Amino acid sequence: MATNNMYLKNMPKRLKKPSLFSIIGWIIFLALFVQGLYSTNITPDRLWTGLINMMTFLARAFPPDASRLSFITTAMFSTFQMALVGTAFGTLISLPVALLASANTSPSPVLAGFVRSLVSVIRTIPDLIWALIFVISVGLGPLAGILTITVDSVGFCARFFSERIEELDAGPIQALEATGSSKVGVIIGSIIPMGFPSFVATSLYALEKAIRSAVVLGLVGAGGIGVELSTAMTLRRFDEALMIMILILVFVIATEKVSTRIRKQVI
Amino acid sequence: MNSVAVKDLGKTYSDGTQALKTVDFEVKSGEGVVLLGHNGSGKSTLFKCITGFEQPSAGSIHVNGQLIDISDKPSLKETRKDIGMVFQHFNLIENVSVFQNVLFGALGRVGFFAKTLAPFASDALRKQAMECLDRVGLSHLAKQRADKISGGQKQRVAIARMLMQEPKVVLADEPIASLDPKAGLEVMDLLWEIVRERNLTVICVLHQMDVALKYGERIIGLKNGDVVIDQKNSQLAACDLDWLYETTAEKDEGGSENGDQ
């Protein structure tokens, strides 16, 4: 032990002096925050009016109108199918894309960097913009929705698949490489099975996300329950709109419950 | 000609660490060699060079007469088929069955990966995998997931996977370091029985000197990247090997955190 309490000079200070970078970061954040508050013109009066309007909507929406339940359920099912098919295609495409994007599986670092950038670009573009592009390309309807969800799922899944692949324990991979196996053999024999639980979990999250997206995509003409919701709101049939919302809620919660069970099984 | 010939091998990493200086030895066909040395003495680097996972900075390695050359991938793959590995941490695919893990041992020699997947493997290959599991006494665990078995059992499965590869040379990198003493000796007994009955060449890294003297016909000692002992077991006693590890204590006191190289 050092004498004269010399060891105390090494005690960390309670607070660290912030770096110039963090000071600038905080200034930018606060400036944007205040500007955001100012430009959106948030006032107590506007918030109160909004609350009253919401109450009026709820009062007019109750009780929910179940007269078109069968038709709405069919539309909801169509939305679910759109999400399922889009996510399935997206997941299938994501796997080879992730293998090309991962540092430990890509044939070259340049290719890995290029694919990673491409996935980032795909992810950066919001799904609504993809939907508008596909509506223009293939016309109104579920096909535009499926293509949107496929692309959106690639942006989501390929990133997480790739991160998981890079985190995998190198030992078992090296063990199969040491047998003289081909690269494909090593990928199929070690990387896919080791990453499988994570791939399934990510795909199920992508499906949950896709169902929520698919509802919104309908608002821009990509088919499904979104079209029904949009029509009901435009025609001010709030009781029917509430019925649609309840059905969406039931579907989303049911999907989450099922996917949680599957995740637990696989992991 | 099942042998490993290491000639004037040197390895310096890009950060300047000299892991191997001038390592020179030959292991003849069917010979059982134990490699000893403290952490950082160069044992793991040597194994990485033999298996072609590291390119030597100097010298050469021949396995069964074939030069190990990382730049010649097809030739390296061919040579690797003859080298069976047993690892300290088993390196099994934990979330697939024991049976599937053993089948993966045939990945290199069978060629097309699908032929080693349990549902598509030929009857002959499936039977061979069960024979390998039976040889290590674990045929009853074939359907079990690899993460559900004990450490000793995992190492036995790794040995079965190595058998499935049908290698001519076996490299065992601290195969009992992760096991309790009893399980460790059982695994060593099994490994040595198998390599002896098949007349395989084996190089085994160990840290336990009593175990090394029990199994190794020849002991090679590495210290600071050089071969400092290379003698027949009969010419050595445990006390002759003590000094190999003396520097370990000095090194640890010096605060080395690099682990083995």
Describe this structure in words.
The complex is a heterodimer of chains A (267) and B (261). Chain A has 267 residues and is mostly helical. Chain A has one domain (67-266): MetI-like fold. Chain A is built from 10 helices and no strands. Chain A has helices at 20-39, 44-61, 69-101, 109-124, 127-138, 142-167, 170-177, 183-217, 225-234, 238-266. In chain A, helix 2 (44-61) crosses helix 10 (238-266). Chain A starts with 19 loop residues before the first helix and ends with a helix. The model of chain A has no long low-confidence stretch (mean pLDDT 89). Chain B has a domain at 1-82 and 206-261: P-loop containing nucleotide triphosphate hydrolases (Rossmann fold, 3-Layer(aba) Sandwich), CATH 3.40.50.300. Chain B is built from 9 helices and 10 strands. Chain B has helices at 43-50, 73-80, 98-103, 107-110, 123-135, 151-164, 181-197, 209-215, 238-253; strands at residues 4-12, 18-27, 32-36, 58-63, 66-67, 83-86, 169-173, 201-205, 218-223, 226-232. A 6-stranded mixed sheet of chain B has the order 6-7-8-3-9-10, with helices on both faces. In chain B, strands 2-1-4-5 form a 4-stranded antiparallel sheet, covered by helices on one side. In chain B, helix 5 (123-135) packs across helix 6 (151-164) and helix 6 packs parallel to helix 7. Chain B is globular, with a radius of gyration of 18 Å.
Can you summarize this structure?
In chain A, 78% of the residues lie in helices and 0% in strands.
**On the 0-100 scale, what is the average pLDDT of chain A?**
89
Instruction: Please identify the oligomeric state.
Output: heterodimer
Strand count, sense and barrel status of the largest sheet of chain A are: none
Strand content of chain B: 15-25%
Query: What fold name stands as the CATH topology of chain A?
Result: MetI-like fold
Number of distinct helices of chain B: 9
Measured distance between first and last alpha carbons of chain B: 29 Å
Radius of gyration of chain A: 25 Å
Q: What is the highest CATH level, the class of the domain at 1-82 and 206-261 in chain B?
A: Alpha Beta
Total number of strands of chain B: 10
Our count of helices of chain A gives 10
Number of domains of chain A: 1
Biggest sheet record of chain B: 6 strands, mixed
CATH superfamily of chain A: MetI-like
Q: What does the overall shape of chain A look like? A: extended
- Identify the strand order in the major beta sheet of chain B: 6-7-8-3-9-10
